[in-house]
């Protein structure tokens, strides 16, 4: 392995075994600058304790303008719409206001009420796949399920779902940048039109609830609702697909685990999903912050204005926090895992993601308890720094 104190991190070694590479980085240089595959660079934070504190410490901000002296802030350009209105990219007080409003609409009850629909959608997807031939679980199950769930959650009419699915796939697939920008613009235009339709004809779904919510006379504007819907799609789609794929991949490698989970009660399955979240870390390195002042990490100073990326994958495998961190041990105490982040921006959709994973795995295990690899594993990882995802996952459902 190359020198991981200063050398490149995101090499072929990384995509073969990200956790081994990250363990070396954490050991040799737990806070260091790294080159990103797209040519940019960032500081990478790999220890559990540092990861947690970066996500909770107000000296680390989301909006770059908040690292500037106050007199320069007003003139600095912000992120264009709809990104600029996304709460994920904002700090208090903008973030506080948006989050307060959205949690009024995105309630526990609303998420729980989706369960029968998620079950029906998971069953329909499996029924559409041939049971005795090799199928790709990524394209056939793990990706379409969360997309369908987001449509259901937002209240996207059935007739529009194919177009919606195509735009969102373009957004997450490795498509050329101009195609992504086009899909982004089409989605934003579609969503603003949908918000207007829901203003005229409200229904029970989330967009109507977002139109309704108010707090001390504060309401969300159409631009803010569009940005929120785009954020839910982007944040809730590939991440959940990755959690499902990681779990299925682990069971393909260990049929004993598959058999245990097929017989597991709901609590055991939910505990296993927490361990898939800890161990698989669907978001490998995404939480980004900027240092609003110089910050010293045991003698390594991250300068004001610098970008930091938190490695949730490294943090969840830190032996200082979890014993035998690289071992998948469903049922272990996973308290404090960071797969959903930490602090003000803690994942808004965590309960929905858990519900989707539970239904996806339960439906698969009930229907096809002997599912098996379609080709020799291991299959290739996606070359993404952000998600720990598999490109394809070939499976025979009923061998
Ligand atoms: C934020 C992980 C599913 C909506 C986050 C963050 C993480 C995360 C790590 C924090 C980012 C940061 O601090 O910069 C995940 C994982 C998921 C998942 C691993 C699936 C396994 C979902 C779903 C939704 C969702 C299903 C909604 C439909 C959001 C939103 C935020 C967020 C809106 C921003 C919260 C804020 O800025 O206050 N997620 N997420 N996520 N997630 Fe998730």
UniProtKB/TrEMBL annotation:
Protein name as catalogued: Cytochrome P450
SUPFAM superfamilies: Cytochrome P450 (SSF48264)
PANTHER family: CYTOCHROME P450 YJIB-RELATED, P450, PUTATIVE (EUROFUNG)-RELATED
Organism: Actinomycetospora cinnamomea
Any coiled-coil regions, as ranges: none
Keywords, comma-separated and alphabetical: Heme, Iron, Metal-binding, Monooxygenase, Oxidoreductase
One Pfam family per UniProt: p450
CDD domains per record: CYP107-like
